[in-house]
Amino acid sequence: MSRAQGQNPVGTTATSLRVVMAQIDFLVGDIPGNTQLVIDSARQAHTQHQADVVVFPELCLTGYPPEDLLLRPSLDVRIQESLDTLRQANLPVAIVFGAPVRRNGLLYNAALVLESGEITQTYCKQFRPNYQVFDEKRYFSAGQDSCVFNLCGVPVGLTVCEDIWNDGPVEQAAAAGARLIINLNASPFDTDKQERRKALLERKSAENQVAIVYTNLVGGQDELVFDGGSMVYDHSGNLAMEAPRFEEGLYCVDFLYEHHCQPVSQQRPEPLTLEESVYKALVLGVRDYTNKNGFKSVVLGLSGGIDSAVTLAVAVDALGADRVRAVMMPFKYTSSMSLEDAEAEARALGVQYDVFSIEPMYESFMATLEKPFSGTQPDTTEENLQARLRGVLLMSLSNKFGALVLTTGNKSEMAVGYSTLYGDMAGGFDVLKDVPKTLVFQLARYRNTLSQVIPERVITRPPSAELAPDQKDQDSLPDYDTLDQILNLYVERDFSAEAIVAEGFERADVERTVRLVDINEYKRRQAPIGVRITERGFGKDRRYPITNKWKIGK
């Protein structure tokens, strides 16, 4: 049975409003497909929840971030076709959605309201983020005006994402009479983002005496993962409802409006631990990158080490065992322990598993290089050749079977260049690219609490690339606990070398680490993308020149 819009519950004089937050995974650039998602979700929200209004994320028609697709000459035509389709869909419910809108030759990031087949309200985002992964000033002009309107008898103000992180837009809407703020978001995940969002919404709602509906995007887009976690706060700063994170869905909340707009509180999901949230982000990132780009399957090199073990588990959890292939490529330095553990991981997860020795190829290459290498001593050249032969094998399997190659390097290794160009860096997507080595260990232990798939000795044995006899990572690097702390200060917090030393770290460790980070920028620029989980990942976040003479120190 349909619920009449604005109908009061029996025995009350307050106006009622049922809002459904559409936490949906949209595909960047697929404007017709995204438009149909909006239509289907609105109809489902009406049928299943008797919604009065359905709220969608920021720029849902284009997907987020659309980047330079916003500069395409046909953008306006495609958006107009989308709006015409929405108008003609005869939706039985009001919707609030995000789209790029052009006015007087300027493009705006806008929130629009569609009621009874007409666009009745348009709000242009006032604050355009231009930091970390955001680049909105490249594309959008800034709106100037608030937008407050009547929705089923409730005075509602519109804002878009960054507007709520700054003073002005919420205050303007509240001063104009709004008692409910609808905030459309495309807020990407990092490890403590949800807590920062909660602190912000608690303060904004209480200071302005307004309820806030915070609808966030969910899904993976290249290196970004959007974690959903849509929320509702009441006018006193209390969290009334929180949607699950990393899950699509239509999440319903009822409001009663008299003097204030009061949401009916709901039971909330248990908070995710650090390991749970990061693991879910990696799974979602791998699933969406693989599926949205049309790959049939994935393939990765399984070494018997912890990085490839965690990568394999993530891939299986994202795609299913039938779409994952693991390849062990041993050499004479590969230990029997590594061979045993790699096979145990593959069997535990039920994936296709192959063993291809690289020794015959290595010997052939060395025979070809015998003359130019005459009179030289073995060094990292021979070690890197092993990694590059493995890269050739994996890329050949990728070409032949349409499989995406997942690389397995972690953030600590990528930072200091402990990786081989055209070797273990050869591939399409690096699952652990933004995951420090110490967190990789935590993720391995977390995954084993779900089901035992990573042998204990893989977690406890000293990490090694096994490119030389008795090789250990710590032969050439500080221990990972120390290294990751130094990297956090230098890469994510921009401390100078002297400032890091002042934190109590050995000068030799700091200067060596900082130097390695700086000289390996050229490698990272050629690395595959990977899931961003920190506030400062390599890629869009951290942009340093390859060629420079900046000296370490102050």
From TrEMBL:
L-glutamine binds at Y131, S187, K193. Deamido-NAD(+) binds at N384, E413, K523. Residues 17-257 form the CN hydrolase domain. GO terms for molecular function: ATP binding; glutaminase activity; NAD+ synthase (glutamine-hydrolyzing) activity; NAD+ synthase activity. It catalyses: deamido-NAD(+) + L-glutamine + ATP + H2O = L-glutamate + AMP + diphosphate + NAD(+) + H(+). Pfam families: CN_hydrolase, NAD_synthase. ATP binds at G301, L302, S303, G304, G305, I306, D307, S308, T408. One of its GO terms (cellular component) is cytoplasm. The keyword NAD applies. Its EC number is 6.3.5.1. It is an enzyme of class 6 (ligase). The active site is at E58, K125, C161. Keywords: ATP-binding, Ligase, NAD, Nucleotide-binding. Pathway: Cofactor biosynthesis; NAD(+) biosynthesis; NAD(+) from deamido-NAD(+) (L-Gln route): step 1/1. GO terms for biological process: NAD+ biosynthetic process. Belongs to the NAD synthetase family. In the C-terminal section; belongs to the NAD synthetase family. Catalyzes the ATP-dependent amidation of deamido-NAD to form NAD. Uses L-glutamine as a nitrogen source. PANTHER family: GLUTAMINE-DEPENDENT NAD(+) SYNTHETASE, NH 3 /GLUTAMINE-DEPENDENT NAD + SYNTHETASE. This is Glutamine-dependent NAD(+) synthetase. It comes from Marinobacter zhejiangensis. The gene is nadE.
